[in-house]
Amino acid sequence: MSIEDVHQQVLDSSAILDEVFREIGTVIVGQDHILRRLIIGVLVNGHVLIEGVPGLAKTLIVSTLASVFDAENKRIQFTPDLLPADITGTLIYDQRSGDFKPKKGPIFSNFILADEINRAPSKVQSALLEAMQERQVTIGDHSYALPFPFFVMATQNPIEQEGTYPLPEAQVDRFLFKLKIGYPSLQEERLIIDRMVNDDEIRVNKVLSPTQLAEMQKVVKLIYMEDKLKDYILSLVHATRHPERFANISSLNGLIEYGASPRASIFMARAAKAHAYLDHRAYVIPDDIKAVAKDVLRHRVILSYEAEAEELTSDAIINRILDEIEVP
Question: What pTM value is reported for the model?
C-alpha cells in the first residue's frame, strides 16, 4: 500500500476524532494533554497510570470516554482488604444444577478505572495487571476473554503514602504511559463551577462504536515510520541505560540505576504513530516521538541514590536526554 493510500485512510478515519474531542470537551474542562494521551492509549491497546491528587475528575474522564466510545465502564476502588476475586470474579455454587458457575467480576468491562491501585496488596495488583497483559481472566479451570475495547486507567495519590503498597517496577512497566494530572487554571476552574454547581447532568453523544475503533487501530498500524526515526527511539531508550556512551549526556552516568526496558521502545513507536494519527498524518515525524517520550519513559527510568540526593527527578533526566540526543 502506497503512502498516498495510507494518507487517505488516515484522513477518512481520523476525521471523527475532532468530534470525539468536542464531545469530551462538553464535560471535561481543560486537561487536553491527559485526554490526548488517553485516546492514544485506546488506539494502541495500551493502559495508562495517572498520578494526581483527589478531586481532579479522573472518574468523570473515564465515564465520559466510555460514553463517547459507546462502551461500558466500571470503577474499582482499591483497598487493603480487596481480594483478587473481587476484581476477576469467582465460582458460585448453583444448588439447582449442583455445578459451580462463574460469577464474572467488574474487570469484565470496556473502560476500567482502577482507583488508587497502590492501596491494595501485590496479589490484587497482579490480578489486574495480568488481565491487562493477557486480556483474559481465568476463573476456575476456564479462561474468559475480556471484552473489546479493554482499557485500564489506574490512579495513584502522590500525597498520602501511609498504608500503600507501591507498584513494583516490573508491574509499572506494563503501563504505556505514566501521566501527572495537575490542577486546572483559574479560568478553567471558573468554567467548572459554572457547569457543575447546579449538578445538572450533561449528556454525551455516542460518537464511535467498537467496530469503528477496531478499524482505526488497523489504520494506526499502517502509519509510516522511517528507519532513522526507529533509530532515534532506540537512541533515547539506550541513553537511559548507558548514558556514558553518549558524549553530550555522559555526566548522567551514575544518576540512573536502571534504564528503560525494550517495552519502552515498542510503546514509544506505537504511541508516536498514534500521535501522528491524532494530527491526521500518515507518517511519523521527530516531534511525535518527542511528544510522547517523557510519558513513556517517566516510570521506566529508576534513579540512583546519588540522583535522589541531588533532588533530581526522572522528568529532569529525560528532559536532558531529549535535549542532547541528536534529532534525525
Answer: 0.91
